[in-house]
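Weekly modeling sync, notes
Attendees: S.R. (lead), two postdocs, one rotation student

Agenda item 3: backlog of single-chain predictions. S.R. asked that every request posted to the team notebook include the full sequence so nobody has to chase files. The rotation student volunteered to paste the first one in as an example of the format we agreed on. Action items at the bottom.

Example entry:
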Amino acid sequence: MKPAPFEYIRPHSLIEACKLLAEDEDARAIAGGQTLVPMLAMRLARPAKLIDIMRLPELAGIRAEAGAVIVGATTRQAVAEQDALIRMQVPTLARVLPWVGHPPTRNRGTVGGSIANADPSAEIPLVAVTLGAEIMLATPDGLSSMPADDFFIGPMLTTIAPGECISAVKFPVWAHKNIGVGFFEISARKSDFAFASALAQLALDDDGCCIEIALGVGGVGDRALRLDVSSLVGTRLEAAAVAEAVHAVSGDMEASSDLHASAAYRRRVAITLSKRAIEQARTDASARALKGAA
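Predicted structure, as returned to the notebook:
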């Protein structure tokens, strides 16, 4: 099939793009187009106007800020995957990016596009929710931001309003020296959307005790979820303590069923992967501590 007719516009500034989006509720922004273009071809999306934001300089680049790394919305996923700053300061994002789609789609797909699409199984929104990232928004009146946990409200649904455009994602940087990351996902084929996934980032002190931990799950319900396992802070993350903490927070985990997996399967797998992710993150942090002491 071919897309339904639409008007293509390439604005010269971010302000102009926001004004165009505000003027027509049927207008859509497009950057990498890895999700929107197939939807256009199948006529699942029929925007009256396509606003091409890919070449706007305000939306590009990766930079460090006090206590954070800011990734521009139009930064291609393949660029972020190879970026040294992200590898050093946002290791969770570096860990999951190779699992996003396939190399050709990462060459075109953007970080902001994945956030805007808000697929419950997508890896980049999972990182944003797990770390408590800020979604930075451009509007006709200026800039604003909101926590990722408030931005995602359901499958393919966000709080973004007409005239607003994602400008960047602000990922917090942990100041601890012994940081470890764990990530697992289950899917029908590698690079397909996950039936369930779990991502953990934690930090250990020099004695091997946990001093900070973040855990998130994706693909289980209608959006990525951050699970509160702060009870593990101060422990050595023994297997029994990890299992108890994960099971304690999994009772409130809402899961959904579809043609691919049942809710019960997704919940069970998410619990198992969460425990494995924490174990992997602990091992990763311990290895960094040993390397630093050598």
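Discussion: group reviewed the output briefly. The chain is about 35% helix and 25% strand.
Action items: rotation student to repeat for the remaining queue; S.R. to check formatting next week.
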